[in-house]
Design goal:
The complex is a heterodimer. By secondary structure, chain A is mainly α. Chain A is built from 14 helices and four strands. In chain A, strands 1-4 form a two-stranded antiparallel ribbon. The longest helix of chain A has 27 residues. In chain B, strand 1 and strand 2 form a beta hairpin. In chain B, strands 1-2 form a two-stranded antiparallel ribbon. Helix content of chain B is 75%, strand content 3%. Chain B starts with a helix and ends in a 9-residue tail after the last helix. Chain B is an all-alpha fold. The longest helix of chain B has 32 residues. Chain B has one domain: ABC transporter involved in vitamin B12 uptake, BtuC. In chain B, helix 1 packs across helix 6 and helix 9 crosses helix 10. Chain B is built from eleven helices and two strands; from the N terminus they run ααααββααααααα. Classes of the chains: A mainly alpha, B mainly alpha.
């Protein structure tokens, strides 16, 4: 099973890599965006799909990573590696603190605590003007240069994001099939049973929460470079909820599903808003439609049929 | 800082808390009875404000505006509960996505109908102006908000504590399954609570529209506040909603006045702290 999945993964990455030079500028940009948001969606899937914790504040870690890069790259002219390290570390630190507060809660309470914690980050982004420039956001983040490699062009940056997303996919994929990952699935199924079996449930959940925050932060660092601009919109509640939608649409607990969901939402958003101003209406209907007609998501439905 | 500053800011905080109470008491009851995370609750506030605005402009009656908004939004809430939310009992993720979907649709519909300009709901002459007590000056409209919240709070308490329906609601908050088991029509209780919560939020929208205005985005602006009130106070607890509203109103006001750069932080960080110490909120039961 894992062998077939791995083969599929290689095929997907190769196809995406081969398509790079042939794609027109606009689809290439969207694909780059989908890869970055895909990392965010996959990171949420680690705690949502595999551990059974619905977080409503996942944009916080994404935003911390993005802001770290934006501030360091514009004010200190820091290079790619320091920015990436700083962004990921800060996101990890944020998740480590928030996890201490949130992991105690379950179900609805977990959802509300993560929402409120996410709002803390949004509030700082919005109001801590001397650091974040508030509502105006931070503009002018330059595309990165890695040693002799200039990643600023659309195609090199696309490959950089593809490599990053593939790496994140592999790492998270290994995580969820590891004994630790199986423990997480056990917790999703029944916390009390896992506790009775001698698992440290709290530690499993906490570690999953922080790891998920790390990958979300990693996605955020790429986002700052991709967009060249970071604003409170990147950390607001709607962004967190949109990430939930991507996971639900693609199929929770499938890892690749949420990435596909991210791609669908990114493309829909950009294409639909060309033809109509009523994008929010369509997005809202998508939310409702997914819940009514595809509760296990696209990949979940496909796997269900195959069985 | 002068005593006037503290008195004025405290009063502003209390009156904002009163408005939050209108919004959050319904949300709290809905949580309590149905365990539903209703992310469209802020939309009821915004839509209520818009409906109230239209009715107030047509009829020149503030009372009519409040009534019409409450009834209209209660119907919206009933429709949502009956047709969509009922089938998602116990599915937290499904409820979140469903209600946010509605919130987005409402936002876009409001934009389509009322446009993007901010409006203020016209308020009766007798509610304008200020009252002077000692050296301090209080806007009459804010006093009115506090009075309305007090009346609503007392009415809710009487209903919950003294009526048959109230006893059924309390039973459903404590243990919906057991309540169902002893013959309480929990789906009907849910519907009543949902309609009531939506109506109160809409009332808050009209009244809030008199001094905060109605504008696109108001829905997602008030939603986190309502959530914090409910989280701090505890799910389904009326005293909790009162305490939470006052606390959040005061924290928000003093936070904005004293530490403008950290104002949301000063609101959400104490909440996180309370939760860390009491995961079920100040008045909640696990």
């Amino acid at each position: 099973m894992i062998g077939r999945r791995a083969l599929l993964a290689v095929v997907v990455v190769v196809v995406l890599a081969a398509a790079g030079p042939f794609l027109p500028a606009y689809p290439l940009t969207l694909l780059t965006q989908a890869l970055i948001v895909g990392i965010l969606a996959m990171s949420l899937d680690v705690i949502l799909g595999y551990t059974g914790l619905s977080s409503l504040g996942h944009a916080a870690y994404f935003g911390v990573g993005a802001y770290a890069v934006a501030i360091m790259a514009t004010e200190r002219q820091a290079g790619l590696i320091p920015c990436l390290v700083m962004g990921v570390l800060l996101a990890a630190g944020t998740a480590a603190v928030f996890g201490l507060l949130a992991i105690r809660a379950t179900g609805t309470y977990f959802l509300m605590i993560t929402l409120a914690l996410g709002m803390v980050i949004w509030g700082l982004a919005f109001r801590w003007v001397s650091l974040t420039k508030g509502d105006n956001g931070i503009a002018g983040v330059p595309r990165p240069v890695l040693g002799p490699l200039d990643l600023s062009g659309p195609v090199p940056f696309y490959y950089f994001c593809l490599a990053s997303a593939a790496l994140a996919w592999v790492l998270m994929g290994l995580l969820v099939v590891s004994p630790f990952g199986l423990g997480l699935r056990g917790i999703r199924g029944s916390e009390s049973r896992m506790r009775a079996l001698g698992y440290n449930v709290w530690l499993h959940k906490y570690a999953a929460f922080v790891i998920s925050g790390v990958f979300a932060g990693f996605g955020g660092t790429l986002w700052a470079y991709y967009n060249g601009f970071v604003s409170p919109n990147d950390v607001q509640l709607v962004t967190s909820v949109e990430t939930l939608l991507m996971v639900a649409l693609g199929g929770p607990g499938t890892l690749i599903g949420p990435a596909i969901g991210a791609g669908i939402i990114v493309f829909m958003k950009n294409f639909v808003s060309v033809y109509t101003k009523r994008w929010l209406l369509i997005l809202g209907a998508t939310y409702i439609g997914v819940i009514l007609f595809a509760p296990s998501g696209i990949v979940g439905a496909l796997r269900g049929r195959r069985r | 800082m002068s005593p006037e500053f503290w008195i004025a800011q405290s009063f502003n905080g209390i009156s904002y808390g009163a408005l939050l109470f209108l919004l959050a008491s319904g949300l709290s009851l809905i949580f309590g009875v149905m365990r539903i995370v209703n992310l469209a609750h802020g939309s009821y506030f915004m839509l209520g404000g818009y409906v109230g605005l239209t009715v107030a402009l047509r009829t020149r009656s503030f009372t009519m505006a409040c009534l019409a908004a409450a009834v209209a939004i209660a119907l919206v809430g009933i429709g949502m509960e009956r047709l969509f939310l009922r089938r998602l009992r116990g599915e937290v993720l499904g409820q979140v996505l469903m209600t946010i979907g509605f919130a987005l649709i409402f936002q876009d519909l409001a934009l389509l109908i009322w446009g993007g300009d901010p409006y203020t709901v016209p308020i009766p002459k007798m509610l304008t102006g200020t009252a002077r007590v000692g050296g301090a000056v209080f806007p009459i409209y804010r006093i009115f908000i506090v009075v309305v919240a007090l009346l609503v709070g007392v009415a809710l308490w009487l209903v919950l504590d003294r009526t048959r329906m109230g006893a059924m609601i309390r039973a459903a908050v404590d243990d919906a399954e057991m309540a169902q088991g002893v013959g309480i029509d929990v789906p009907r209780v849910s519907l009543v609570v949902f309609a009531l919560g939506a109506a109160l939020a809409a009332l808050g929208g009209v009244i809030g529209g008199g001094f905060l205005g109605v504008y696109p985005g108001a829905d997602f602006e008030v939603l986190p506040y309502a959530f914090v009130v409910v989280i701090v106070g505890g799910l389904g607890s009326l005293p909790g909603a009162v305490a939470g509203s006052l606390l959040v109103g005061l924290l928000d006001n003093f936070g904005k006045a004293l530490f403008p750069e950290l104002s949301y932080f000063t609101l959400f960080a104490p909440m996180a702290l309370i939760l860390a110490l009491r995961p079920t909120g100040l008045f909640g039961r696990s």
